[in-house]
Amino acid sequence: MKIKKVKQGPFDIGVREDDNIVLSVTIGNAQIGGNLVKLGTEQLQKGEIKNPDLGQGKDLVGKKLTVVTNVLDVNPSSNKVSVTHLFINGTPTVFNYPPLAFDDMEVDEDGDILSLTATYSFSKKNN
Amino acid sequence: MKRLSTILLLLPFTLQAQETSLNNLLTPSQPGFVILDKSPASIEKPTSPKTLGISVLRLLEENGGGLDFSPYWFGNHPNLTFEKYMNNRFPVLQTLNVSVAAAAGDTSSYMSAGLRTQLFRYYRASELGEIARIKADIVAALSDDPDNIDLDKIKELKNELSELTSKTTVNIELAAAMAGFSPDNKFGNLGNNRYGAWLNMAYRPIAKAPLHLMGVVRYTKAIDPLGVGRDSSLFDYGLAMSYQQAKFDVQLEFVNRNDVQNGGIRIDWRWWGIIWWRIILWW
Question: Where are the domains of chain B?
């Protein structure tokens, strides 16, 4: 059982000051994953991430969000790992891992773990 | 001084015309190889269209070998969560497996292809609940810094999960395969030499009891490629029941074979059973 580490970002997310920013993480390919979400150094959420409110845009601007998603390959038919980070009220809204032809999101064998660390920084969106 | 002794009592019984086993009728995991009655020396397992292309080229270059792949999993399925997958009762595409084999000699060559899939799968609500509980434990164990993940615990949970997911309440599998023979090594002269289909139905009627019921059906047709021998067309079916515990075990099996080529007459059959139990003596 091995852990493969993949780092992505930092990616910029535009937010309006008065909007609530909500995060959702989806693990695809019938695999199982757990998450660790940090805003700066403060831990916000652990476990399955289903629409937790990260806060209002004005409180997030200039801050760095780290989403660690660890996926265990439990699917005997595929070693591919698919993770989607969805930011409701953020621009862009969806971050897919992998994008097309991104071979890094694959483990060597059944039972291995892929650890994706994606970082995001929030900036003010004017309109 | 107390001593423990174990005695196994076996009561096998068999009524049969010839030797036909239910195991031979089970849906093969790689029907494309089974239809040829031999496994290729090398089997490639491509996981993408690109690696499939490379594997096909290698198969042609080396004049033989095997391919075993699941086309559905060539791509990514970002919205297919573990829950959706487990709750899908008709995972026909997701479990579709393709096996292809080729063997070329100096004067003749064979080629075969087979498909296998799970037509229907059903878990009881209590079993899905147990799977969800283990999944929640795995999620909790994974929700940490990667350097702090307890790999031993994850491995144990994954093994538990694999065991649970393998125990379907109802499982119906289908497989089919065909093989061609070319007497002069020319692809254009490849003729259908043999084909077959398998259907298995497995049922666990009681959640906590180790009782398993199974029904199997197989049809095979073999055509003599050179036209000097007889063709054969066989329809086999079988039923099996097993109840296995540490101290007590019953297995019953019935298999029947009919020759379709000759009006469907029964040409082979077998009743087979075994009962054993363990007696523990103390003195």
Answer: 4-123+168-282, 124-167
- Judged by CB atoms closer than 8 Å, whether chains meet at A3 and B154 is answered as no
Query: Cβ contact (<8 Å) for B76 and A68?
Result: no
User: Are residues A28 and B80, on separate chains, in Cβ contact within 8 Å?
Assistant: yes
- Which own/partner contact pairs does B221-229 have at CB distance under 8 Å and 24+ positions apart? B221/B194, B221/B195, B221/B196, B222/B193, B222/B194, B223/B191, B223/B192, B223/B193, B223/B194, B225/B181, B225/B183, B225/B191, B225/B193, B226/B183
| Alpha-carbon span B115 to A126, nearest angstrom | 56
Give me the residues paired with residue B110 across strands. B103, B181
Question: Which positions ≥6 away from B142 have C-beta within 8 Å?
Answer: A32, A33, A34, A70, A71, A72, A113, B149, B154
Our count of domains for chain A comes to 1
> What residues of B are in contact with residue A115 (Cβ under 8 Å)?
146
How far away is chain A from the Cα of B79, in angstroms, using its nearest Cα?
5
- ipTM for the whole complex: 0.94
A98 touches chain B (CB under 8 A): yes
Tens digit of each residue's pLDDT, chain A (127 residues): 899 999 998 999 999 999 999 999 999 999 999 999 999 999 999 999 987 889 999 999 999 999 999 999 999 999 999 999 999 999 999 999 987 546 789 999 999 999 999 999 999 987 6
- Set of chain B residues whose Cβ sits within 8 Å of the Cβ of A27: 81-82
pLDDT digits (tens, 9 = 90+) for B60-70: 777 788 999 99
Range of the domain at A109: 3-124
Cβ–Cβ contact A47 with B under 8 A: yes
